[in-house]
Each structure stands twice: as structure tokens, then as C-alpha cells.
Specification:
By secondary structure, the protein is an alpha/beta fold. It has helices at 31-37, 43-54, 79-91, 132-138, 156-169, 189-192, 197-206; strands at 6-9, 60-61, 68-70, 95-98, 110-114, 117-126, 145-150, 175-180, 183-188. The chain is globular.
Length: 207
């Protein structure tokens, strides 16, 4: 078992995942239908759908930003939090697609794309000192990856426990990605199975 917890700074130098090559053809299907498909697909079909969504004609570059695409919603209550997290992802070399929130549908917040790799994230902005566990559980059923944007001090030991419990309660969970200032920490399920996970995580989070 690999006991390393991935940590990086915002340089855009890291590379991970597997490639999925899909022809860049115009997408004519309804965007809401594509978002709903994400709730029912897995594997290659899931990645294909992510690609289709990013190619959809409704997406437009966000004015004043680089590599951030949106279909509107700039006046939504959570938009500032979305934009702050998106800017940090851009520094890592991603293109970011801010997803709409169709009425009556629980959707994730972002698709991140880099070098042909597509990942779906649900954003949780952590502003308090005891909310990460509850916020991560809210993402279950929306995305298999959670992005925690830490905007306040948060006890590292408690956060490690929150993350471990999240993976235990969500068998579909793949990754918890953490933005903390200029630091980025990626935790996958395998990390949490280590008997020294809590110690390793605290070392990465606190340094």
C-alpha cells in the first residue's frame, strides 16, 4: 500500500489519471439531459459524457478570466466561492467549466480538464471550524470527487477524521481535493486505509 498523500503547490506541473480521447464534435443534446446522464453512467461512458458537456455550445468563456467557462449564473449566491476555487484550479493548469444547477436536479459544480483528463468535482467552501464532515456528506450523489476550499483555520486531526468517515460512508467516493492557500492536497480512498493516515495527513496539511 502506498502511504503517500499527494501534495502539490500551484505550479501546474503534476500529471495524473488516464487519457480518454474523444472526437471534438459539436454537441447538440440538451445540456440538462447530459448533466442527468452523469448520475447514471460509469467508466468510459461517464468520461465521454463529461467531454460532451465541455463541448456544449451553451458554454462561453467567462469575461475577464482565462480558461473558465460558464453558462451564466454569475448572480447566484455561491458564485464568488465558485470563482475563487476555479481561479486556483486555473493556476494548476486546468480548464474549468462551472456547471449550471438545473431546477430539480442535484448537480456537481465543476468539470476540470487538463491534457485530455476530465474530472467532476463538487465544491465545498469551508468557512467554519466544524463543518467539513457535514459538507462532504452533502455531495454524496452529486459527484465522486469533492473539492474542499479551506478559507478558515481547521483542525488537521478533525479534517483527517472527516475525510476518512466520508470515504467510509460513500462507496463511490474517489478523491477529496483540498485547496489551502497555495497548497493542494489530494486524498484518495487508498490513503485513508493506511493505519498512519491521520499522521501523514496532518504532516501534509500543517507544514
Amino acid at each position: 500500500m502506498n502511504d503517500d498523500i499527494t501534495t502539490e503547490v500551484l505550479t501546474g506541473d503534476d500529471e495524473f489519471g488516464s487519457y480518454c480521447w474523444v472526437a471534438a464534435e459539436p454537441v447538440t443534446r440538451n445540456l440538462d439531459a447530459l448533466l442527468e446522464d452523469l448520475l447514471h453512467t460509469m467508466g468510459a461512458s461517464f468520461v465521454w459524457t463529461l467531454k460532451e458537456i465541455t463541448l456544449h455550445s451553451e458554454f462561453r468563456p467567462l469575461s475577464g478570466e482565462t480558461n473558465i467557462f460558464t453558462v451564466g449564473g454569475e448572480n447566484s449566491e455561491d458564485y464568488d466561492n465558485l470563482l475563487n476555487a476555479a481561479r486556483k484550479a486555473i493556476e494548476l493548469g486546468y480548464r474549468v467549466f462551472i456547471l449550471p444547477n438545473p431546477k430539480g436536479m442535484r448537480t456537481a459544480d465543476f468539470i476540470f480538464e487538463r491534457k485530455g483528463i476530465y474530472r467532476l468535482y463538487d465544491l465545498k467552501t469551508i468557512q467554519g471550524k466544524g463543518s467539513a464532515g457535514t459538507r462532504m456528506k452533502e455531495s454524496i450523489g452529486q459527484a465522486n470527487r469533492v473539492l474542499l476550499n479551506m478559507t478558515s483555520d481547521y483542525n488537521a486531526r478533525l479534517l483527517a477524521s472527516d475525510i476518512k468517515e466520508y470515504f467510509e460512508k460513500n462507496p463511490d467516493a474517489v478523491e477529496v481535493l483540498i485547496f489551502k492557500g497555495k497548497k493542494v492536497i489530494s486524498v484518495v480512498r487508498e490513503h485513508t486505509l493506511s493505519p498512519i493516515f491521520n499522521r501523514l495527513f496532518r504532516r501534509k496539511y500543517e507544514k
